[in-house]
Amino acid sequence: MQTIYDYIIIGAGxxxxxxxxxxxxxxxxxxxxLETGGSDKSIFIQMPTAxxxxxxxxxxxxxxxxxxxxxxxxxxxxxxRGKVLGGSSSINGMVYVRGHAKDFDEWQQTGATNWDYAHCxxxxxxxxxxxxxxxxxxxxxxxxxxxxxxxxxxxxxxxFVDAGVDAGYFATKDYNGQQQEGFGPxxxxxxxxxxxxxxxxxxxxxxxxxxxxxxxxALVHKVLLEDKTAVGVRFxxxxxxxxxxxxxxxxxxxxxxxxxHLLQLSGIGPKEVLEKAGIVCLHDLTGVGENLQDHLxxxxxxxxxxxxxxxxxxxxxxxxKIGVRWILNKDGLGATNHFESCGFIRSQAGVEWPDLQxxxxxxxxRYDGKEAFAGHGFQVHIGHNKPKSRGSxxxxxxxxxxxxxxxxxxxxxxxxxxxxxxxxxxxxxIINQPALDNFRGEEIQPGTHIQSDEQIDKFVRESVESAYxxxxxxxxxxxxxxxxxxxxxxxxxxxxRVVDSSIFPTIPNGNLNAPTIMLAxxxxxxxxxxxxxxxxxxxxxxxxxxxxxxxxxxxx
Length: 556
Prior knowledge:
- This protein has twelve helices and 25 strands.
- The chain has helices spanning 16-23, 43-46, 101-109, 117-127, 155-166, 198-206, 255-265, 271-276, 316-329, 414-431, 453-463, 513-528; strands at 4-10, 31-34, 61-65, 78-82, 128-130, 144-146, 182-185, 190-191, 194-195, 212-215, 219-225, 230-237, 240-252, 268-269, 283-284, 290-292, 296-304, 341-345, 356-361, 377-384, 391-394, 405-407, 440-445, 465-466, 496-498.
- It starts with a strand and ends in a 28-residue tail after the last helix.
- With 556 residues, it is an alpha/beta fold.
- Helix 1 (16-23) packs parallel to helix 12.
- The strands form seven sheets. Strands 1, 2, 10, 11, 12, 13 and 25 form a seven-stranded mixed sheet that branches. Strands 7, 17, 18, 19, 20, 23 and 24 form a seven-stranded antiparallel sheet that branches.
């Protein structure tokens, strides 16, 4: 093992694998990638339909838990994070959502200069190989395969889209293109029937290069600092404590829990938090671990009057057949995440761009695959995606194996509570449209008895779950809570960057894997000293958003 590298990347996840590939493209750069987890060569990771297994397996995911959440009846929430090559892109639901264009314009407005949509779009395109061909919005030659699974073969997928249109909303062909708002097919990171994690798309091809070294089962203890300059890292590997120096930069890509925790373990963060944990504060940086955000969701479940749902495929014999077909051909029900149609709507008139998101599933079951409904059913996952509640990640010990204290403060803000009231009422209206008359049976959850604000609030507090999108805990910007500047450099420390979803200033309206990969693509170019030119394209939505909640109010 070398004792010095040009770049040391901590975390082989959604961002770290991208950086390892792009920085090692230059044969003059020596790159070291450190990952606490191990190999991703498991059928449960690679077969898309098995998505619930790796995220609930300690071997592949940090099984973090929150503190009792004060606005959710003190519930302790599950917060799994990838601990394997590919990181969370190897354990996630593979849903590919960039976010709305205005989410990134919002980043710029909050101080992340040149992170508006025009600057981000070229990197979304650079990363992507869209199954239906490139255009001014979509990429066709990138490492990351994106498609629509089995092309919505189950009739329930299209019925859900049609129900959204019946209710007065847009139909949108491509929510990652010109218009997010509306109902249409959902996209997933699957290529040739396999999970298109960043390990598969970016890291594996790059591992053939002699200038890239990947060390797994390496737990980083801290970034080494000298005179407020990052000079290397200390980590545990093969029961030994090792130190490796860096010529150019250390890059934290450990995610929205891991990156702020590692900064704090290294003596970088809020002085009071560090001293309480027994850590000497080397650089007082108030925002480290603050501004934490996440998406919540719950499941609206209905019985299905026709025997066409995935609930009929949950016996051991059906699962065996699906698995064997996938092993042999990489197709069929094993080659999709089953979220093949979706919707993005605005919760209220006066909301400029969508803040509610739907994932439709032709089955009635939990995200972890448990507690399947006894009979045929379908469900929509619905959440309010622009929360105003803010939480924190805080170190509690010098011991790097001791998990940090995680508190999201879910539903702390009244607007978030109102957002979920809107979720219940708008979703119930959509599902009861004529397009679903031939399929819709009894409402299982929440249940038709849940009607008043008080009843909805109680149901949400008891039933809502994380959508597993923690972010924003090392925000990018220039204000007093920002941790990195718009070039991803840690304020006040030389030779140290953070590149992952923790540096999002605000959480986008959608799943986070796509914007994290985009961010890493652009950060790699910033590190290299050149960036792609911004691209301005047409972005559309409801022109009358100030006065109406949906495009055709008359259909209500």
